[in-house]
Amino acid sequence: MLRWPPILLHYYITEQCNCRCQFCDIWQLEAPGSADAAEVMTNLDAAARLGIKFVDLTGGEPLLHPDLPEMLAHARKNGLRTTVTTNGVRYPERARELAGKIDFLHFSVDAATAEAHDTLRGRQTFDRVMTGLDVARALGEKPDILFTATPENLHHLPLLAEWAHRLGLILIVNPVFSHRHKRELSREQLCELERYKYQSGVYVNTALHLLRRRGGNDPQHPRCRVVDGVVVISPRNELMLPCYHFCRERIPIHADLETLWRSGKRREARKHQGSWEMCRGCTLNCYFDPGFMYRVDSFFFKSIWAKMKYSRDKYIRYPRAQKKGRLDTRPAREILEQIVLEHRHAVR
Q: DSSP for 46-73?
């Protein structure tokens, strides 16, 4: 075990969403909440003092929160590196107020065609995310592309991998998780994803795949380290233990996150992390990915390798390609449509 402070703050700043994704159920909540900006600022101050390095301002759709730019600026003022994942719908009109405040900006793109993408998203968002990518590129934001791999869209991966490479952007491939009986990828389909782990610009964390092949988290021998590695805060200013998706306890923070984090309740949750029956078979990417850093084993080394490759591609390989004029500067949709046509001609 590695006795590090938590590395990541998952802050659910809103549960509101303007999509109806097939692989998510947050949008189905009857009374979605949104965080109070002043409480967020206070908790970000405390997170920095706890030694947390990254904050993921998430949702729902985080761009629906009117105070997101101020939250991001405050996080960076505290030395926290920021992450925002968006469906892209609101990004074009909010891009300038967000510019320079997000270290890891992720655009969700789930298929290479508008019809397939919008079917998975439950809304017509393809045009907006393409426009958003172009706006972000023009502002020098270097966004990542997040692809949630499902049994229904896996055949789009080769096209999106080529597209991201031409753009000089990272394609993050996350297998859909099985929370509440969602359909997971088969072993054969995981092997399909792993074909891309060496490809430039594609992030595939095979530690997650190994976990799935072993049946997910085992309460008798838990690999989950969510309480070690991740602090989870709800829109209602509650510390959620052990995590958002399988929450056993919601504890009001009352402007004292540090004391609460060192409390007996948190120590008890840490002692039992991953050992509850509800944790059986869990493969939630957002908790296991940072949690792999808290025990030195095969999961640790596979995850470290994927992160090192991500850093090499994002901060060394693609900047060099950009300086040499090797990246495609045309609109994102135009490039993708060309790739789709090339693929169709090749199949014929």
A: HHHHHT--EEEEESS-GGGSTTHHHHHH
Whole-prediction pTM? 0.93
Confidence of residue 59 (pLDDT cuts 50, 70, 90): confident
Spatial neighbors of 96 by CB under 8 A, at least 6 apart, are 139
What's the whole-number mean pLDDT along residues 257-285?
93
Residue 3 belongs to a domain: no
pLDDT tens digit string along 89-118? 999 999 999 999 999 999 999 999 999 989
Residue 319: inside a domain:
yes
Please indicate, yes or no, if residue 236 is contained in any of the structural domains.
yes
Output the CA torsion 138→54→184→222 (10° steps): 170
Say which CATH number the domain at 112 has: 3.20.20.70
- Enumerate residues 6+ apart whose C-beta is below 8 A from 38: none
What is the count of structural domains for the chain?
Answer: 1
3-state secondary structure 15-47: CCCCCCCCCCCHHHCCCCCECCHHHHHHHHHHH
Question: Residue 155 sits in which domain range?
Answer: 8-347
206-234 residue pLDDT tens: 999 999 999 999 999 999 999 999 999 99
CB contact set of 193 (below 8 Å; sequence gap of 6+): 149, 154, 157, 173, 175, 185, 204, 209
C-alpha span between 233 and 52 (Å, rounded): 13
- What average pLDDT does this structure show over 52-59? 95
Cis geometry, peptide bond prior to residue 242 (ω within 30 degrees of 0): yes
For residue 68, what are its two tokens? Answer: 């997101």
> Is residue 2 one of the residues assigned to a domain?
no
